[in-house]
From TrEMBL:
This is Centromere protein F. The lineage of its organism: Eukaryota, Metazoa, Chordata, Craniata, Vertebrata. It comes from Struthio camelus australis. Transmembrane segments: none annotated. InterPro entries: Cenp-F, Centromere_CenpF_N. Residues 97-108 have a biased composition (Polar residues).
């Protein structure tokens, strides 16, 4: 097959053959260069896809963290309200205890007075 390809060159001058050889060499060089650039392009496209996927994953992670943060903030608010209610209830109960303690002391004093009066 190679012989048939080379057959068209028969009878050409040395100068023309030399020029053809230079052109063929240049074509081979350009083909190799094209292959290298194609490989670089494919590598860059693969890297770009990988980066796009990474960005997408990070966006999803960010959205998940935002939702989780919002949920935790709502929980904190709820717990703060519960704490305030419990604190208020405690103050009310302490007031009731103090009032009842005062009534108890007053009743004890009254009982002591009455006992003293009975002894007389």
């Amino acid at each position: 097959m190679s012989w048939a390809v080379e057959e068209w060159k028969e009878g050409l001058s040395t100068r023309v053959l030399q020029k053809i050889q230079e052109l063929e060499s240049q074509v081979d060089k350009l083909k190799k260069e094209r292959q290298q650039r194609q490989f670089q392009l494919e590598s860059l496209e693969a890297a770009l896809q990988k980066q796009k996927q990474k960005v997408e994953n990070e966006k999803n992670e960010s959205a998940t963290l935002k939702r989780e943060n919002q949920s935790l903030m709502e929980l904190c608010d709820s717990l703060e309200k519960a704490k305030q209610k419990i604190s208020h209830d405690l103050q009310v109960k302490e007031s009731q205890v103090n009032f009842q303690s005062g009534q108890l002391n007053s009743s004890k004093k009254q009982i002591e007075r009455l006992e003293q009066e009975l002894k007389r």
